[in-house]
Design a protein that fits this description.
Jelly Rolls; four-stranded antiparallel beta sheet; alpha+beta; elongated; two-stranded antiparallel sheet; disordered C terminus
């Protein structure tokens, strides 16, 4: 659930007639081919169905008997919301068949400036290469409907260095060197290490060493065990992601054998992610 910008907390207004919302589908490549369709009791569309949006976001508002929800609210916000403004949240139903892309959300100030910059450049709201589709930051509330695995944020740098040191593999030395530098800001060290991690190819040696460290009772043993889980091929149905430097995958029994897909996360990503 992503909140839209608002400076005031408004009381919920009682309405005489509730509007039935028809969600708007987002067909991102990581979406599942049947999970949302199964929930809705319909046949799959044949396309990946990633997110079903319920709200008044201008790029994909829900439909109502009175028209798109953003237009309904704009005509008479007092009648619909009880105040002059916009709907301050967006509800999304996510179904992920693959790990989501890495994402970072801006601050409210960055979002406002970026939105104005994209508008000034004449980039359409629905353009794939547009970075800012509204002027809001995106604090989110996540509610899991199925088991899933999510990673958000970074380990403390000192802890990551200790983890890399415990694995003691030459393939991982560049990551440790990048994090151990003392001549640049921590954010730059993390950015460099993340870039190296995404290019790292040390699968066999990392898996072998993880097996050796998995019996440890400290955070290094926990990381080694998590690494083994992330490398295992897993049936997937649905998942969700907190969108702040995160990636996610779901792990649960697929409802239909034809929809089972196998996934695994990049080995070296687990050095940096929590």
């Amino acid at each position: 659930m992503a909140r839209e910008k608002t400076n005031t907390i408004h009381p919920i207004k009682a309405v005489d007639v509730a509007l039935k919302l028809t969600g708007t589908m987002q067909n991102y490549a990581w979406g599942h081919d049947s999970y949302i369709a199964d929930l809705q009791g319909r046949d799959p569309s044949g396309d990946p169905e990633a997110e079903l949006w319920f709200g008044a976001h201008p790029s994909a508002p829900s439909e109502t008997s009175q028209g798109p929800l953003d237009s309904v609210i704009a005509r008479d916000p007092q009648a619909q919301l009880g105040y002059d403004g916009t709907l301050p949240f967006l509800v999304k139903l996510l179904a992920a068949a693959k790990p989501l892309s890495l994402q970072a959300h801006p601050s409210l100030e960055q979002a406002g400036a970026g939105f104005e910059r994209d508008n000034a450049a004449g980039i359409p709201l629905d353009a794939p290469h547009r970075n800012y589709k509204d002027a809001n930051h995106k604090p989110e509330l996540l509610i899991a409907l199925t088991p899933f695995r999510a990673m958000a944020g970074f380990r403390p740098v000192a802890e990551t260095i200790e983890l890399l040191d415990a694995f003691d593999l030459p393939e991982l030395a560049p990551l440790e060197d990048a994090l151990a530098r003392d001549d640049v800001e921590e954010s730059e060290r993390l950015a460099h290490a993340l870039t190296l991690a995404m290019k790292c190819d040390a699968t066999s040696s990392v898996e072998k060493r993880a097996g050796e460290l998995a019996e440890r009772e400290d955070f290094i043993g926990e990381a080694a065990r998590n690494l083994a889980v992330s490398r295992a091929s897993t049936p997937v149905t649905a998942g969700s992601s907190p969108r702040c430097c995160s990636t996610t995958s779901a792990s649960t029994q697929a409802r239909r054998s034809s929809s089972v897909r196998e996934i695994s996360t990049p080995t070296c990503m687990d050095w940096v992610w929590r």
